[in-house]
Amino acid sequence: MPTTEPIRDMLGRPALTPVTEARALLLAHLRGPDSTGHQLPLLEALDRVTAAPIIAPEDLPPADRSTMDGFAVIAADTFGASQSSPAYLDIVGEVLMGHPPSDRIRRGTCQRIPTGGLLPEGADGVVMLEHTVTVDETMIEVVRGIGTGTNVIRRGDDIRAGEPALPAGHRLRPQDLGLLAGLGIAEVTVYRRPRVAIIATGDEIVDYRQTAAAGQIRNINSVTLASQVQRCGAVAVDFGIVSDREEVFVATLSRAVAETDLVLFSGGSSVGVRDLGERAFAHLGKPGIIVHGVALKPGKPILIGLCEQTPIFGLPGHPVSAMVCFDLFVKPALSTLAGLPTEAGEPRATISARLTRSINSAAGRLDVIRGRLFLDENGRWAVQPILGRSGAISTMSRANSYFLIEEPSQGLSAGEAVEVYLYQ
Amino acid sequence: MPTTEPIRDMLGRPALTPVTEARALLLAHLRGPDSTGHQLPLLEALDRVTAAPIIAPEDLPPADRSTMDGFAVIAADTFGASQSSPAYLDIVGEVLMGHPPSDRIRRGTCQRIPTGGLLPEGADGVVMLEHTVTVDETMIEVVRGIGTGTNVIRRGDDIRAGEPALPAGHRLRPQDLGLLAGLGIAEVTVYRRPRVAIIATGDEIVDYRQTAAAGQIRNINSVTLASQVQRCGAVAVDFGIVSDREEVFVATLSRAVAETDLVLFSGGSSVGVRDLGERAFAHLGKPGIIVHGVALKPGKPILIGLCEQTPIFGLPGHPVSAMVCFDLFVKPALSTLAGLPTEAGEPRATISARLTRSINSAAGRLDVIRGRLFLDENGRWAVQPILGRSGAISTMSRANSYFLIEEPSQGLSAGEAVEVYLYQ
């Protein structure tokens, strides 16, 4: 296990951890999902994660089939056939959809076959309808020769019995469910979804359905975080708004740790609430806090820790900061708990865009800049930074995207190309 | 309305429509969503589409608040303050979270204030704790001067009463729900979700939960299409596997048109089933088929039409082709029915990758190539085309991405950079 003692700066404050390092430290502390999964009907398993590898129980397709409307033939009978020198074949039958062929194909004969039709015994290819001329009801001319296997999908061509169909730890997409349906697999074993506790703290916070009196502010974070949790395919469990009196807060936090797989609390970046978070961790036991703030804007005051194996995140109170911290730290943790491979090495798509104005940044800090992507007068993508405060949720709502200013950089210049990620 | 008479080629077959043209033709025929929406509690509205613009009913924040832990001051009292020449201020109180300040600030005085605390009357800025030195319980030194408004978020700085918070036709993301929560909007009016009928046809098709007899094949498309519908935020309604006898098929199709907002049937690219689809459209009435096949691989044999205002898609029977057609045509149609703006002008993120091998394409046709993105030995993205048949669903399951070979191109060369879209 990595060390959990914070490095301190000259004033004795814990030093900020770089984002990448903080994330690696977090993921190194996490256990995977419960080792057992549960079975779900295929149509309920979209976006769930496989708990075991799935092996093809049979060949797909189960037999050789035509991929074209045409005639099932012995390819050798058509070798060299052309418009000027066609091959003549006797029609000895017709393959009907959903039925086994009535007869086998012998040299010099053929059978009509529809797309998807079962290839009759003896046949090894299909001549497309368009490459035949009907002589009469009993005979065709083939005007273009085919090779063995032409227009045929062979038994097991899609997947063979015994081959791996899907690995464990795979998020089921529409095409994966399709593959399982093709193999006749009607139920799939998936991991259960992680449950995430959401706790809001702060004596000024009131439920968003209430009128806020002077000095009070509505609870935004429990709504944004629950929605982010839902987007990750996890289950949000609302633990409500909890007093920042230590004994009350610690009691709720302990209950959340006992009842869920991951705990989020948010309560402002004020020193008071941060102290509360630090004291609460001390009550919960080992390993405690592993990250005391990160070199990130917005999101610097995040606390990351664990109570035994349950990760706990003390998120900044500013709604934008909390959302950014969720994306950078909570989301990868949830992926690990869900049973997915770590995101390192996973492709992330971007849009290259021209920056409309210069932005400064402090070296040594990762900046996450909200942006508005738009097509400029030349039909190229440009991105307008949205530079409001991290307390202003409207800046996040106006953003359709974001981009990064990496740690070594002191800023970006107007006109520079930046790689932009979409907020979807 | 655009013309619905198909252009025919020299053999009298309807000519293939280019993909972009087919999509534009389709979208031009569609009505939007029902003009009325219904109300949902905020936490149930994630990913739903607003049915009306939302105007901020009040200022957010409702009053001036501190963004730092420190002291609320009159900025003019601190002008020019520095380490060597500090300003001295009397502490006359403390702002408590969730409560209105007890007193106003007069010249030469200050109040302790936490992050998020309501700014006392008279104060116009906050000095950070770090820029003060405590003299005693009643006095501080300010060692760095501030300007008016420093460390304060003003009433309405986030959003002002009467300003537009969200437009109509906006898909609600976590941050949008957060903005509404901040404004005390507990319910939101959204469009209802489009309902999509899924019909499988073909006498060889059996339910995927059944054993397939010789010549039979399990129903993959109803599973993949239902999952794709679900991913679009629409509701899939399974109309089962229907005989391809014309009267039975037309009766089911009519019922689907009556009961849902969009109808999908898939039944193979064979001429037989395609003919069935064309005859069925003729029974349903105007405007009928508007696209008879597109210049696309895979997906060429798609039929697109309408019965009055309900769009109907005859999708190819090959699972991969049906999925590709869904993405290119059904998805944008569903967006329009859901009330979202058309995708034209919407950013789509990609990953630039090196193509590992050359691929040929016919000019005049859009090719959608399944691919496997991976990091090559130099840590750069490369994409390996997956070149199996469109009947082989495993090729789609092995793919994590796709890329396009545009109509004018006759192919791409190994080593070329291609823009790759993720299958997520």
UniProtKB/TrEMBL annotation, chains A, B:
The keyword Signal does not apply. Its cofactor is Mg(2+). It catalyses: adenylyl-molybdopterin + molybdate = Mo-molybdopterin + AMP + H(+). Pathway: Cofactor biosynthesis; molybdopterin biosynthesis. Residues 197-336 form the MoaB/Mog domain. InterPro entries: MoaB/Mog-like_dom_sf, MoaB/Mog_dom, MoeA-like, MoeA_C_domain_IV, MoeA_C_domain_IV_sf, MoeA_linker/N, MoeA_linker/N_sf. Its EC number is 2.10.1.1. The keyword Metal-binding applies. Keywords: Magnesium, Metal-binding, Molybdenum, Molybdenum cofactor biosynthesis, Transferase. SMART domains: MoCF_biosynth (SM00852). Belongs to the MoeA family. Catalyzes the insertion of molybdate into adenylated molybdopterin with the concomitant release of AMP. This is Molybdopterin molybdenumtransferase.
